[in-house]
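Figure 2 data, in text form.
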Amino acid sequence: MEIVTTLVISPILQEILSRATSFADGEIAKAWNLEKELLSLTKSLPKLQFMLEAAGKMVECNDTIRDWLRDLEDLAHELVSLLDECDYEATEQVHTFLPSFSFRRKMAGKIKEIEDFFHRGIQIIDVLNLLLTSLDVATPGQYPDDISEILGREHDLTEIISLLNTLSSKYPLSGLSIVGMPGVGKTTLARSIKKWAEEGNFYDLVAWVSVSKKFDEKKILEVMVEYLDGRAGGWNSYDAMLQHLRRMLENKKFLLILDDVCNELDAETWKRFISRLSNTFKASGNSSIVVTTSNKKVASTMDAVGCNRVPMIKHELQKLSNEECWLIMEKKVLSSSNLTSIKDPELAIGKAIAGQCGGLPLVADVIGEALSQHIDADKWSAIRDNTAWDSPHRKGILSKLKKSSDRLSLPLKKCFSYCSIFPKGSEIRRDEVVQLWMAKGFLFQHHGSKSDEQEDVGDRYLEDLVSNFLFQDVKMDEYGNIESFKMHDEMHNLALSLSTNETFIWPDTRPIDPSCIRHLRVMSNTNFSVLPEAIPARLHSLFLDADVFQTMVSKLSSLRSLKLAAAGKEDLEASLCTLKYYIKYLDISEVQEVPGFVTKLYNLQTLRVTGCRSLGELPTRIENLVRLRHIYFNDERHMPSSVGKLTALQTLQLFVVGEQKGRRIEELKCLNQLRGTLKICNLEEVASESEAMEAKLEEKVHLIKLQFLWSKCRRANRNIDESVLEQLRPHSNLKSLTLENYRGGNFPIWMLKNAPSTFDLFRLNNLVNLELFNCDECCNISCLRLLPELKFLHIRAMSNMEGIGSKFYHDTRERASRIRVRGQPITLFPALIKLVLENMTKLKEWIEEQGLVVFPCLEQLLIWDCPEFETWWIDGSASQKLSVLSILECPKLQVIPSGMLNLKSLNIEDCHNLKEYAQRDSPKWDNICHIPHIKINGEMVQSQDS
């Protein structure tokens, strides 16, 4: 029987507690006469949660606890389903719904069963309490039996030793943290540092402390004393122990290695620990601390606290190359045989296997041990071809990686294990995974804690998992938010093992217990003729990458999340009727038609219909989905009418303004929970500034990206464009703004400043990115010159803009002599990093003005399709940091300014008057020959290696 751990239960109990508390405090509980049962349940659940922490330590050695947890899980899921039914019926009939006697009895009965399990659990744990083991907080001198010498880490060892020597020569106490994902070799490297310190006598005393589960400074200091003189515990006071430690370390240089500091460390605890060590080492010479951790936040805390008194440097370990992994495997094989080298065909097979290690020395070490058992091509081929996570050598890897998940909180473990539903190597988007966690009920806060949206909790969970290196290849947006990530193959195997047979990806050869499966993915191009009969009705998540939905409709009864590759309307409608109480996440992007019954899914939180171009309009009455928080569509035809009634909505990426009721701009009025990106199209349909005011965009404090689009082919109405845009004033939290096909001659006052008499107070003082496309009537962007955070500016098809100079930098009303503060020139575009000028048909010149500091941070410049551009003189502040320059389709430009000494990359395309720059015997070549990368008309004429 597979082990059931408390990670399965805990998030479910949190959801029940949150929802039961809400029910108990409301009118519904009174109407249904369930107050007593719900209040009793809310009192029992926190105690039950505490018991689960204890039960989790006994589950692997006791069948009674294991069975108790499995039964409790089933009950908890049933109670959540009942709560979903309550929500649904209450929405369907609002105040008129009174549950039947049988329904009320079923609800009360489930609550009573939960309480009975609570009392039964207390009895079980009391009897088996002696089986609970205490936490191993810190133990001296213990480290794993890895390979005896480091391979592939010679450079890291040299660098760390150099850093330790440099620091210890300057400071009485200093430190270094070695950071990296589980299995990357942090502990092995720390062992090499310890060996270097002892053999070279660089320190008088060296102590190794395995911190592991909890950072307890008193325990660590006790271990240090035990390490030094063999005395363990028995101290009358903390001060007495510190005094004894101080005497032992007097006039001695000390190296302390804290291995595996993995739980998050608060700043005050580390500060207090460092302060006590610093006082202890006052007369000890120049001592050092080396910390290994798989948690980026731990290293950051140490850096932040240590920078004042005790400097800490972070050294992050990267994954090894395939060749370095092979060296580890080869060393393992040769050390267990009489061979001096490995010959073909084993050599070729072994190097192929090294590519499966994913750059982790731990994996290479374990597989090397497996290869050493039988040096035989057939045996090695079998290991190479057996990539299943439950194969013998993979189990060895998982047993070593498991501690990286053991330290996680129970909700984090469940969120991590759920990600095994995604295929190996796939890119996982942040918004999708957070919404799936939410649908499963993983994102409820503990009762009484700070009130946050579930999406906020999910974002924090994701950041914690990334910080612990459980996710890799993280992509961030320009604002520092996680966009997507991937899972290392071994981390995926770990997540799959933690799912305790809950997750299954078809096809898979591993043995399964069908009654355990709650999350199923069917891969594309697969034969699905066997498994359907074994699919349990308890399935909670179904991801179909193949068109096999019609074979499964009758099997589905309790899905929370459904993602389809394709389905017929009738099949989908029949299934949704069955799932109406429970479904919370629905991705039907590939279907040809959305059935009308979608509007009856009152508990739905996320709806995605983005992938099918032939999809027609969405059904009417979408506004019935009162709990809908995220809706995704990318076609104007799919925008639901009366979207303004969906007041819980957070994601509405596209809003198309129309004349008819339900599609007017005023629909945005009450959608103050909107987050992320909002694109508003057909703004020419807004008839007046009073209509624009009704959108109340300034109240959308969570929106960070706005796109305002007018149709290109329309009757020009310059005045209405200006007045409408003036009233579409966003909140000052906005970070990205796009204006497209705007025909006003001036930009609105909120893009300029709050008060006419000042230059430094701006509405958009948090704006990072600005895009101005086809704004034909505008001739300058002087209002943007002082935006303090603007880093990216893209201007396309501003056909009236003739030059970059005085009109570009300031209004004709304001001369340079007037924009000075206390005699010093104001810095214009102070944070701009990237500037793109595209399709500027009248742009002729770029002339810098003396006495102004302009573009001091500019690193990238792209000038594209400017047929009249011929004069360019750039010097001073704008050329200091410029490293990337692209000039495309500027046929009249004859000269590239000199003086751009930091330029690293130059790309010239279709600029016929610049042809001399490609000739090495031309005097103009001398102006650019210092640039490492030069590409002219698609041909690389100079690269870094040339």
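Caption note: Residues 63-93 form the longest helix (31 residues).
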